[in-house]
Amino acid sequence: MINGLMPWGNCKLLPLGPLREPLIAIKRANIAVVHHADLVLEQKLKDIKLVVQEIKESLPIFYTRMTPSYFFELRNISTKMHLGAVLDAVVLCVSAIGSPYAFVRAMEKIGPLFVDRFDFSDHYSFQLKDIHMMRGRLRQLEDKFGYKPIVIVTEKDYDRDPEILKHLHPFKVLVLCSEMQIIPCNGCNEDSFKSLLKELLEV
C-alpha cells in the first residue's frame, strides 16, 4: 500500500521517516495499491509507477480513493445520516490520521458552508486538554458565523476513544464513514482486483 500523497517521504524507515519497510520490499509484493490517487496529479502517479516497476516490473498496480458513505452521530450511533446533513453547515474536521488533507478534501467536496480543521499526529489519542482547545476553536467559529458548528471525525479517531469526544457537548459530533474504492485504470478495476486476490489466496 502506497500513500499517493506522500509515497516515499525522505525514503527513511520509521521513526526517521514514513516508510514501514525499505522500498526493496516491493519485490515481495504481489499487488501494489496506490491510495488517494484521486488527490494526486497524473504526473506524480506516473512517477510512482516508474519507481515500483524499476523494483518489480511485473507488479500489478491498482489505484484507490476514499469515498464518503454516510455519517452517524456520536450520541446515536445506530442511525445513518445522509452526507447532505452538513450542507450549508460550518464544520470543524478533527483528526489524528496519516493523511488529514484527504479527510478535509473529502469534506469540502460534500459541500459545507465552511470547513476548518484541527490536525493531530497519526495515532494520537485525544486528551482533555485537546478537547478544551477544540471547544475554543468551536466557540470562535460560532461567534464568526452566528450558529453552532459541527465537529466531524473519522471512524478511526472515533474507534480510538469514543468517550472523550462526548466532552464536546453541546456541540454536535458526527463520524464520517467512508469506503475504499478502486479507480478503474489500464484494465485494472474492482473485478480484476478481486480475481487476482482470489488467485493469490488459492496458491
Automatic annotation (TrEMBL):
<dbReference type="InterPro" id="IPR003758">
    <property type="entry name" value="LpxK"/>
</dbReference>
<keyword id="KW-0444">Lipid biosynthesis</keyword>
<dbReference type="Pfam" id="PF02606">
    <property type="entry name" value="LpxK"/>
</dbReference>
<keyword id="KW-0418">Kinase</keyword>
<keyword id="KW-0441">Lipid A biosynthesis</keyword>
<dbReference type="GO" id="GO:0005524">
    <property type="term" value="F:ATP binding"/>
</dbReference>
<dbReference type="GO" id="GO:0009029">
    <property type="term" value="F:lipid-A 4'-kinase activity"/>
</dbReference>
<protein>
    <recommendedName>
        <fullName>tetraacyldisaccharide 4'-kinase</fullName>
        <ecNumber>2.7.1.130</ecNumber>
    </recommendedName>
</protein>
<dbReference type="GO" id="GO:0009245">
    <property type="term" value="P:lipid A biosynthetic process"/>
</dbReference>
<keyword id="KW-0547">Nucleotide-binding</keyword>
<keyword id="KW-0443">Lipid metabolism</keyword>
<keyword id="KW-0067">ATP-binding</keyword>
<keyword id="KW-0808">Transferase</keyword>
<comment type="pathway">
    <text>Glycolipid biosynthesis; lipid IV(A) biosynthesis; lipid IV(A) from (3R)-3-hydroxytetradecanoyl-[acyl-carrier-protein] and UDP-N-acetyl-alpha-D-glucosamine: step 6/6.</text>
</comment>
<dbReference type="GO" id="GO:0016020">
    <property type="term" value="C:membrane"/>
</dbReference>
